[in-house]
């Protein structure tokens, strides 16, 4: 373990100051109708997608937000923004997960991605999603904006 410039050792339980704030905007998703059968999520209607956005890192940085559910739409438009204050952005990861809401059973998995905060470039990005095994979907992407303030 490396020590700081004054021989201090990092303790994640200490009160930490916010170094930067990440704003994540989830505009929309597309591509499920190309990578999945029409009845994969629901037998009789288009899917009801929502997106979960997590920060995973030191305890002070961890957080979770969720978009509203867009019902009966293969190309959902959420247009929602979330703000995450970060104390140790070098150790934080942005986890994105899309699920399909199901009233009677467990919500269906629609894709995921994990991005190190240190690698995020500000701006609007098409973020590819991956299946549970880590295989990239051919077409499924989210249109998102990342902004540091």
UniProtKB/TrEMBL annotation:
<keyword id="KW-0443">Lipid metabolism</keyword>
<dbReference type="GO" id="GO:0006950">
    <property type="term" value="P:response to stress"/>
</dbReference>
<feature type="domain" description="C2">
    <location>
        <begin position="2"/>
        <end position="131"/>
    </location>
</feature>
<keyword id="KW-0472">Membrane</keyword>
<protein>
    <recommendedName>
        <fullName>phosphoinositide phospholipase C</fullName>
        <ecNumber>3.1.4.11</ecNumber>
    </recommendedName>
</protein>
<keyword id="KW-1003">Cell membrane</keyword>
<keyword id="KW-0807">Transducer</keyword>
<dbReference type="InterPro" id="IPR035892">
    <property type="entry name" value="C2_domain_sf"/>
</dbReference>
<dbReference type="GO" id="GO:0004435">
    <property type="term" value="F:phosphatidylinositol-4,5-bisphosphate phospholipase C activity"/>
</dbReference>
<dbReference type="GO" id="GO:0005886">
    <property type="term" value="C:plasma membrane"/>
</dbReference>
<dbReference type="GO" id="GO:0051209">
    <property type="term" value="P:release of sequestered calcium ion into cytosol"/>
</dbReference>
<dbReference type="InterPro" id="IPR001192">
    <property type="entry name" value="PI-PLC_fam"/>
</dbReference>
<dbReference type="Pfam" id="PF00168">
    <property type="entry name" value="C2"/>
</dbReference>
<keyword id="KW-0378">Hydrolase</keyword>
<dbReference type="GO" id="GO:0048015">
    <property type="term" value="P:phosphatidylinositol-mediated signaling"/>
</dbReference>
<dbReference type="InterPro" id="IPR000008">
    <property type="entry name" value="C2_dom"/>
</dbReference>
<keyword id="KW-0442">Lipid degradation</keyword>
<dbReference type="GO" id="GO:0016042">
    <property type="term" value="P:lipid catabolic process"/>
</dbReference>
